[in-house]
Each structure stands twice: as C-alpha cells, then as structure tokens.
Amino acid sequence: MPSSAGHHSPTLNRRGFLRTSLGGSAALVAAPAFVGWLGAADAKAATAPAAFVDDYKTNVMANQTPETNAVVRALGGFAQIWKTGGAWNTGTPLMPDVLRANVRYCERITTERTDAEARKAFIIDRQHQSYSMIDGLGPLAALYKTGAKAVTSITSAPDGTPPAKIDDAVPADAPAGSALGAGSYDSELGQVARLVDTLRGNWASGNPAKFAYLYPRPWRMNEDSEVVDTGGKDEFGFPVYESKVVVAPQLLRQRSDKPTDDGGFPSGHTNALHLASLAYAYAVPERFQELVTRALELAHTRIVAGMHSPVDVLGGRIMATALAAATLADPANSGLKAAARAQALAYFTEKTGTTADSLYAYAHSADTGTDPYADREANARAARPRLTYILPRRGRKDPLTVPKGAEVLLETRLPYLTAAQRREVLRTTALPSGYVLLDGFEQWGRLNLFAAADGYGAFERDVVVTLDAAAGGFHAADSWRNDIEGDGGLTKRGSGTLSLTGHNCYHGGTAVEAGTLVAASPGALGEGDVHVTGGTLRVDEVARVRGSFVQEGESALELSLRGKHGPALTVRRRVLLGRGSVLSLRLDAERPPAAGTTVPVLSASQLRGRFDRVELDSTSLRAVPVYTADGLSVRLVRQ
C-alpha cells in the first residue's frame, strides 16, 4: 500500500529571519542564501523536461529535485510561494501573504470545528483511504463492499485521545478472503480493486516531494508562518509550538514526533484519496462526479483535523490528478483498466437488475438522506472553493494547454468523444490561470474534473458529437450541464440522445442530423440558428431560439403542451418548415390543457411553410394546427 506519511518544512518571519528554538532557547537566524533549485527549474531548464505521463516513474525517494522527479516538477508552482531551506525549519516564505492566509485558515477551521467533525476527521485519518472513497458510489457502495470483500476496522472515533496509535486492519470477524482498502483481488470486483491499487502503486508516494519542499505541518506554525518551538512538551511528549491550530483530540497521539520526517506539503492522504476516487470513477463512471466530490470533501478533513493546510491539500490533489492520468495512460495498464470497467459494469447491472442504459438512473436513485451526494448543485457549491482555497488570483486569463495524456481521465465518462474532444472538454472547463501553485509545470492543478464530467464549457470551434444508442450507457444517452459559451456551434449525429441543460450562449448555431437532442432549459440552444434535418429536437417545457429555426427532411420537433402557458418554442427570427418535417406534441402530465382550448405552440417574427404532420400523444384528443404569419397554435378537439 502506498505510504501517506508526511515529512518536513521551514518558516520565517516578515523580515526574512526564521524564528526557531534550539536547545530550548528561541533564536532568530538569517534565512540561508540558498540557491532555489525549484525556482531555477521553474524558470526554465536547459533542456525541456519530459511530459509527466512519460516520466511519472521517476517519483521515487532517490529523486528529490524537479530535474529528476516528475512529481516534484509538477508541484513546482509551490516554489513561487516557498523557498526550501536546508532543514525542516529553515525555509523562506516568498509570498508571506499567501502562507499567512494558509495558516489563518487552519486556525479558523480547527477552532470552529465541532465534535462530530473531529470524529469524522479521525476516521478519515486512520481508515484506509481506498475504503473511505467507496461511499462515493452511493446506492452502489454496499454492493461494492460485498462484491470486493472490502473491509475496515475503523468505523467510529473514540471520545477523547486514545492511549496509543491506531491503524486499520482486517477485523477478526470479517468473511474469509476480505481485504483492506479497495478489496481483494480474489473477488467479484478484483480487477477494480487491482486498478485502485495500481493507481496508488510504486510511483504514487508523496514522500519524495515532502522531502523536496520541507514545508511544516500547520500545527507547528503560527500566523506569520513561523516555526516557534516553545521548548516545552505537552502531555503526550510532543514539542509545543506557538500555533493556534488545534489538532483534533482523537489524533494527538497519531501525529509524528519527528518533524524532520513529517512535512506537510503535499498531503499524502489527499493524494491517496484522489487517486482512489479517479480509479473508481474510471471503473464506475456512472458516479464520476460524486466520487470527485467525495475526494474533495474527505481531503478537506485533513485541514479540519489540524494535520494539513490548504496548500498541502491542493498539492495532494495536483499530484494525484497527474499520477492518475499517467497510470491510466500507461500502455502497460490498458488491459487492466478495460477489465476493471467491464467487470464493474457486469457486476452492478447483474446485482441491480439494470442494463448499461439504466444503471446510471439506479446509481442516482437515492435521496440525500441516504446518499450525501444526491444533490448535484450542492456538490458543485462544495467542490468549487476547494479547488483554490485561500489562493488569490492574479494576472490575466490564459488558455490552458491540456497536459499530455490528461484526456484519459474522461475516457469512460465521455466515451463517445474522441481523445481530442475530451482534451477540449478539459481545456474549456479548466480553472482560469493566475492561481499560484496551480500554475506549475503542465498546470495539472487547473483541471476541474467536476466540471469536465458535465461536458464542454465552450464551443470555441464547431463541435460534432455522435452518440450510438446500440453501444449503451453514456454512448446511448448523456447530459451536458455546463453553461456553454464560445463562437462555435454544435452538430448532433448518431442514434443516441444528448441533453443540454445549461444556460448556453454559444454563437455558432445548433444542427440536429440524427438521434435526439434535448433542450432541457430555456437557453439550451445558445445564441445562433437552429437547423433540424434529421432525428428529433425535443424541448422540455419551453425553449428559446435566438436566431432562425429551420426544419426539413425526415425530422421531428417534439414539444410539450401545457395549460395556461405561453409557446413551448419562441424563435426570435423566422421559422422555415420544409417537406418531411413533423411536429410531435405531448400533453403535460401535471397541467394538461383541456379539450376545446387553443394552445400556443410556436412563435416567431415570421413563419413560412407547414409541418407535413402534427401528432399528439392522446387517444381522446387530436390537435388541429392553426397557422399564422408569425406562429402556430393548436386547437384541441375530441376524437
């Protein structure tokens, strides 16, 4: 199992002196005139470094420089904030305002912490991280634990400080063959467990980077990012530091008493949690976004515990994102990742009585009473601030060059897109530039996987998407929930169904050539023209077309009829209806219009042509079209 242990660091006061305590007496020592190898590498090495995904196996303890270690290099943005010293307590804050905010955030969070939060922080600290992530599977979590034979001995927290260190173990009464973490390889979900462990494998430790950066844990620092050892000892024999960060009482004896081997940056637990989440998300993409949310939530408990600071947690997320992509992109793991996805799909569909097309609905069938991640909007509100924490944003907005291989992270979540299209999704949903630390080598920290799971953030060029209903799962139906902007447009092809739910403002227009495109919000169709030449454009409730609307060929426009409601489709410019066009109307289940009423259906500045056929999903009523120069209504009459 990969280590999640910490390591060491330095700190300094506003005048460039480090305050420390040696031999029990406090002293101020000048920060060493130390050549920052991190800064030098960050400022451009003589030879271009290899892409992270091609170099990730350099992350071993023997390599602790950016020139030799891909993880240290990927975390190089931290070198703009912190200059590593020659010992754990001799570093220099290069951005004191950022590091001061970093410690003050820890002080506030730990002093306001509730007992329930302290208990949860203990469980996440002591429980195997791969096991902790399983609950992100929601309604599938219990099935996973059974099928994978995954167990833990850490299910509750003590009332106070336990007398000794506590580690996770296989309970004595666990079924034969049970295993910690993601579970047993000899189980119905053994390939998934193996995938999780592979992502957390030999090259996934945060320890080389901890030794490289030597940044202290927050409970060893005060508001000025200084390490101040009072010279005293607490009741557990730990040195007492002049810090207002309060460690959860249950974790006081779980800390390391060796600061030289216990650095804070990056957080090893955070790295492990995110690696496990992305492995599960690859195998069970039906819960991709919820797993990302849970990883961010559990990583936050490291701050709540008093064991890590925001920059530590951000560093752990950055390295895990890069490591997950590198491991999944490694050709040596291609068979394993495919087997894990196939195994998970087969297992869960069998156990739930679903198909590849209906498993997603089952995986989202619980409410927030049993699935804490059932509310997508609540997930989004929780996730967004945890991507940047206390980091200020400075500088202009520069587009992201997506790191090589990063698109593999969306390979099962957006399987109908090409690799190039998945890269565009990552680029157009990325965090803006200007966040120090996130802007390190290849800028892995800017990837926003929560947003990327909801499709494009912008159409910066025309996008053609093809969904195949016969392939099942996300190939058959998917939703893009982001608010999509840009000068490009969208062309929908293939037999599957794509839903747009955002408040979109892309300008390049919308074309439906096959399958079904669903306008699931009033602004779903963007700012341009809409052209339907095949398949179906379905409007849920109401929608607006800000340009012109053209329908021709063997195609259908599907609208809902509601009593006492305006037109289901409003077109700002003209409507042109050609041969082969069909209008398919469905009665709203909750507020259907009554027989004998005339219901507005479509309004425009000008209407030319007529539908070849008008259909209504009723056995007792038929719809009689009433055309005018600027729209269409239907009169409902009994059959």
Automatic annotation (TrEMBL):
Keyword terms: Signal
DNA-binding keyword on record: no
PROSITE patterns per record: TAT
Domain Phosphatidic acid phosphatase type 2/haloperoxidase: 192-328
InterPro entries: Autotrns_rpt (IPR013425), PAP2/HPO (IPR000326), PAP2/HPO_sf (IPR036938), Pectin_lyase_fold/virulence (IPR011050), TAT_signal (IPR006311)
Database matches in NCBIfam families: autotrns_rpt
Protein name per its UniProtKB record: Phosphatase PAP2 family protein
Organism per entry: Streptomyces tibetensis
